[in-house]
Amino acid sequence: MRDNIKGGALTETTFFVLLAVYKPNHGYGIMQFIEKETNGRVVLGAGTLYGAINALAKKKWIAPFDNEADNNKKEYIITDAGKQKAREELKRMGEVYKLASAIIRGERNQ
Amino acid sequence: MSKTVCRYFFDFLDGQEKWLNNMAEHGYRLKKCGRMTYIFDECRPSEYEYTVEFVGDKSYSKAQDYCRYLEGMGFRTFTKNINLNFSYGKVRWRPYAKGMGQIATSPGGFNKELLILEKKRDGAPFELHTDVRDKLDTCKTVRRAYGWAVLLMFGLIAMTFISGVSSMSVPMTWVIRAVILIFGVLFVIPMAKYSSLINQLKEESKIFE
Predict the structure, then answer these.
(1) A26 has a chain B CB within 8 A of its CB
(2) What is the DSSP-derived secondary structure letter of residue A11?
(3) Handedness of CA B10, B53, B130, B19 (dihedral sign)
């Protein structure tokens, strides 16, 4: 996982993983969520997802959800710190969207 | 009916993966693998596909956790050796690894440097790493492993030039040097391939995630 520390931008992978664990979800579920919600545009590899999950858990933006039923399918849930980051990312993306829309649609002269 | 094949791959990732997929295309499904042996069961041609992942840089517990996670994702897993280490008793030093991954024990992570993963062929590419940064990190780890193998081979050649190290005849010493050199070159080829891939990915990472 890489995040732009200065600008606070999260990678697409990071942001989607955060969104996928607003409800408890496991690796395969996260992968399916992202593929479905992006209509197949983003298909995460299992290795990339594993790295992202571990990095987010290390930052305490997500945490293991208490479910010992199947250890192979460990579930995760977003934490308050993770929700805060997701809100900040949404705001940042909104600003980028506004600026890009104005320029690309010719509503604003550079 | 089972089929046993004896094989060792210097190109332990891509070469092995290509060969396993070729076997699957011809109707052979991996059942078990040993240090240099592969046992296959017959299956429908192209029913399964394989990818090979390097986990020799991870500590045994992390490699096990990763393996469990991949099994949870629905993949069938096999551990495989690359035999690239410096050993003392049952403890091995893996110079190419990071942190606790540098210490491999037997029993433990030693001879389990690779994970062979199997899934049913479903038309989707069998890619474990899809993010440019993640691909870059993975390629760097693999290149480091090949780099140490090359260094070891050239170190061995250098040792043969030290007087008094060997009592072998001069022609025999040159034969040994030539054999080690060939092994070194066999490791240089995949190392060069990964170096080129790393350069491409570095360029891509400036633009894409």
Answers:
(1) yes
(2) P
(3) positive
CB contact (8 A) between residue B73 and residue A46: yes
Contacts by residues B176-180 (CB-CB < 8 Å, ≥ 24 positions apart):
B180/B153, B180/B156
Contact A45 B131 (CB under 8 A): yes
Q: Which residues of A touch B124 (CB under 8 A)?
A: 43
Cβ–Cβ contact B70 with A under 8 A: yes
Per residue of chain B (209 residues), what is the pLDDT tens digit?
A: 889 999 988 888 999 999 999 999 999 999 999 888 999 999 999 999 999 999 988 988 899 999 999 999 999 999 998 875 556 667 777 777 777 777 777 766 677 789 999 999 998 899 999 999 999 999 999 999 999 989 988 898 998 888 777 777 888 889 989 999 998 999 999 999 999 999 999 999 988 87
How far apart (Å, rounded) are the C-alpha atoms in residues A104 and B180? 60
> For chain A, what are the domain ranges?
12-104
Of the partner residues A12, A28, A31, the one whose CB lies closest to the CB of residue B209: A12
- ipTM greater than 0.90, yes or no? no
Residue numbers in A near B63 (CB within 8 A)? none
3-state secondary structure of B34: coil
Q: How far apart are CA B119 and CA B71, in angstroms?
A: 10
Q: Mutate which of B57, B68, B69 to test chain A, going by most A C-beta atoms within 10 A?
A: B69
CATH 3.40.228.10 assigned to domain A12-104? The reply is no
Task: Outline where chain B has alpha helix (H).
Answer: 14-25, 60-72, 132-160, 170-205
pLDDT at residue B161 in the model? 86
Q: Does A51 touch chain B (CB under 8 A)?
A: yes
Cis before residue A24, ω within 30 degrees of 0? no
Please judge whether B128 and A47 are an interchain contact, meaning their C-beta atoms are less than 8 angstroms apart. yes
**Are A48 and B128 a contacting pair at CB < 8 A?**
yes
**Regions of chain A with pLDDT less than 70:** 1-7, 67-72, 107-110
